[in-house]
Structures are given as C-alpha cells and as structure tokens.
Amino acid sequence: MRQNNYDKRIGLFLMTFKGLKVLEAIIESNQHYLISFVCVGDDKNLVEDSSQEIIALCIKNDIQYLNRKDYISGDKVKYLLAVSWRWMIESKGINLIVLHDSLLPRYRGFAPLVNALKNGEPSIGVTALFASENYDEGPIISQKSIKISYPIKIRDAIQLIASAYQALVLEILQTIADDIPLQSEPQDCSNATYSLWLSDNDYFIDWNWDAQYIERFINAVGFPYGGARTSLLDRTIRIDDAIVLPEVKIENRDVGKIIWFDNERPVIVCGRGLLRIDEAVFIDDNTSILPLKKFRIRLR
Q1: Does residue 14 sit in the same domain as residue 36?
Q2: 147-185 pLDDT per residue, tens
Q3: Same structural domain, 178 and 145
Q4: What is the 3-state secondary structure (H, E, C) of 21-89?
Q5: Quick check: helix, strand or coil at residue 131?
Q6: Contact between 158 and 17 (Cβ < 8 Å)
Q7: What is the pLDDT of residues 52-82, one digit of tens each?
Q8: Region 40-46: what's the mean pLDDT?
Q9: How many structural domains are present in the chain?
Q10: Residue 182's domain is classified under what CATH number?
Q11: Are residues 166 and 235 in the same domain?
C-alpha cells in the first residue's frame, strides 16, 4: 500500500546518466510514490548530460520536478538524496544522503571515477553516505564494489557504476518505506585520499608519461567527457582510441615523435613505451587526422 505521510517521502537531486538510471530503477520498482520532487541539474562539461531525459521521465510519470535554481529548502520530506550533484544543497536539518563515485574514504572530492581509472585501480564503486560539513567525510550507509580489468573506457565504467547506484538507492528506499532507521558507520579518515577537480588543461596529454598511463588517460576522459587532447601541426586534436605497443630501445628518446606507422596508424614515443593512435580527430572541424601524410611529426 502506498504511504502518503511526509516522513517517508524524499526529494531527489539528479544529474547525468547515473541520475537518469536511478530514476528509471525507482519507477520500474514502483517506488516513485516515495518521491516528493526531483530537482534537475545540467552539466556543461558533458557532451550528453541526460537532464532533458530526466525531465521527460518525470513528466511521463507525473513526478514533480524543478530546475536547481528554483529549489528552495523547506519541503516536508524526511530525506534528500543526491546523485552526481555538483553543488551545495541547503537541507535545513533534513537528512541529506549523497552518492559518491568511489569506495570512500579513498578518492574524496571531484572526478573520482575518472581519476581511479587513470590510476588503474583494480576496483571501482559507489558509496552512499550522509552529508557532512566537509565534503565526502560523512558516515557511510552502504557501498558497492565492482572489479574491473583494463583497458576500460569511461562510458563502460559509468554503465557499471550506474547499476551500483540503482542497487544502492533501491535498498535505501526500501529501508525508508519499511520505517527502518538508516544505519551508518564513520569513515576511517587515516585511509582518506582526495581527488581534484579537472580543468580544461587537464585533458592534455604529457608525452613524458608512461604509455600505459596515457592509454588509461585517453580511455578515462573520453565520451561523455571532452576527450584526451594534444597538439598536431599547430592544431588541437582529440584522441579517442589508442593502444600500447611493445617497447623498443630508443637511443635518443624524444617523446611525442612518430617512430613508425603500424597498419597506417602512427606510433608515438612516450616517456616509457610506445602508443599507437587508432582514432583521433581535429577539434576544430571534427575530421579524422588519419591517414597522416607526413612522417616527421611530433605531438606536443
């Protein structure tokens, strides 16, 4: 039976593909009667931020929604729950639950999934926690861990993470619906690490890096993010796909230079190792850089 009392209802703050998948799971499980409202945010840093799809889903299922700029705290709900949210939420004493793209206390902060993939972590995951005065330091309600193997692209990692988001949120909503208090445990701050936000310059490759790291970097910042970048013939290019090749001994290692072509794909000298570029486009007109007509070229 549907419960109409406000102390069981929640307000959702949703962004990105993960927010969309969470809302879909709530509706499919017939738990959307617990939703008082959905506050929708957009992300200009993503090629596709899913905000319009979230709004369309709310309209289709008669769920109240509003833009983040229109939110005013004071709704009669017991819980607020944020998915992929980038801004501070004024909760005014309401229990605020945050879902974070890491296995806290590691990777507190910004772009945790991107940075975990860049670093080659063997597992990724999601943490549900109560909000605290300092970001990502609150007590942990629950976590989901996912083992991964490399290479893996960010879009595939997001798919895996989205499933973990769905499972966590459905568990939390069921606990709320059953009038069971949400239990939590404090974090072990001695194990905390931090993940910094990314600026435009952080999408550029440093060819002094190890080739394996560059491959992970390219995969970690690809679609729906802006993509790994470098300069070619005074134009900026985006590398969408690349693969590490076996190392050779180079007497005068000069990173960024093409050493040869492999199946008509340029092979680039890295700080350690070699990297073959399989797909890349010029940023200004989105045309492929391949096939290259010059051999003596250096990427910067």
Answers
A1: yes
A2: 999 999 999 999 999 999 999 999 999 999 998 999 999
A3: yes
A4: HHHHHHHHCCCHHHEEEEEECCCCCCCCCCHHHHHHHHHHCCCCEEEHHHCCCCCCCCEEEEECCCCCC
A5: coil
A6: yes
A7: 999 999 999 999 999 988 887 766 788 999 9
A8: 81
A9: 2
A10: 3.40.50.170
A11: no
Last residue of a domain, one of 171, 195, 219: 195
Length of the chain: 300
Q: How far apart are CA 27 and CA 264, in angstroms?
A: 49
CATH of the domain at 249: 3.10.25.10
For residue 146, the surrounding DSSP H or E stretch is strand 140-147
Residue at which a domain ends, from 195, 213, 239: 195
Q: What is the mean pLDDT of the chain?
A: 93
Q: Is residue 237 part of a domain?
A: yes
Q: Which residues pair with 286 in a beta bridge?
A: none
Distance, CA of 66 to CA of 11 (rounded, Å): 11
- Contact (Cβ atoms closer than 8 angstroms) between residue 36 and residue 75: yes
Could you read off the pLDDT of 236-282 as tens digits, one per residue?
999 999 999 999 999 999 999 999 999 999 999 999 999 999 999 99
CB 110 within 8 A of CB 41: no
Owning domain of residue 245? 200-282
Residue showing tokens 């063997």: 122
